[in-house]
Amino acid sequence: MTLTYSKELMKHFKNPKHVKKLENPDAVGEVGNIRCGDIMHLELKVDKKTKKIEDIGFQTFGCPAALASSDVVCELAKGKTIEEAKKITKNDIIKKLKEMPPIKIHCSVLGIEALNKAIENYENKKKEEKIK
Ligand code: FES
């Protein structure tokens, strides 16, 4: 079976801007795709005062759909506050990529799941800091 990806998806796949490892990230999120076993690892740098995501990067062994959709997740989340970033949905990502082959939907949610895990990790760290 041949998959057809949108031009927008191929643009992000061929030239992702957020495939990188951050130095001393404030939070990390990692998720696996239960259907294929691929892993998505995402990191955040958050401004202490504004709570805005000042940098974001990811690494994955996933397919083009996973890579492109995660690059879009990062593009959408960068510059947003943690609360604003929580509101990003998988539909926002698919809208940005124009379309997603139905068979690849499970790949396209990896980035958003990893972002949500990273936000959870960030909030847990903040709670722990308050307890100390
Ligand atoms: Fe594994 Fe798409 S096939 S992430």
Question: Key features?
Answer:
6 helices, three-stranded antiparallel beta sheet, alpha+beta, single chain, 132 residues, elongated, binds FE2/S2 (inorganic) cluster, 17% strand
- Radius of gyration, whole Å: 15 Å
Bound small molecules, which ones?
FE2/S2 (inorganic) cluster
Low-confidence stretches: none
| Approximate helicity band | 40-55%
- Helix-strand category: alpha+beta
* Structure annotation, total helices: 6
N→C terminal distance = 55 Å
Task: Please tally the β strands and state the result.
Answer: 3
The biggest beta sheet reads: 3 strands, antiparallel
Q: What is the 3D form?
A: elongated
One letter per element, helices H and strands E, the order comes to HEEEHHHHH
Mean pLDDT: 95
DSSP strand (E) fraction?
15-25%
Description:
With 132 residues, the protein is α+β, with helices and mostly antiparallel strands. Helix content is 45%, strand content 17%. The protein has six helices and three strands; from the N terminus they run αβββααααα. The protein has helices at residues 7-14, 64-77, 82-86, 90-96, 105-108, 110-131, and strands at 27-32, 39-46, 53-60. Strands 1-2-3 form a three-stranded antiparallel β-sheet. Helix 1 crosses helix 2 and helix 2 packs across helix 6. The longest helix has 22 residues, at 110-131. The mean pLDDT is 95. It binds FE2/S2 (inorganic) cluster (FES). Residues 33, 36, 38, 62-63, 65-66, 107, 110 line the site of FE2/S2 (inorganic) cluster. Residues 33, 36, 38, 62-63, 65-66, 107, 110 line the site of FE2/S2 (inorganic) cluster (FES).
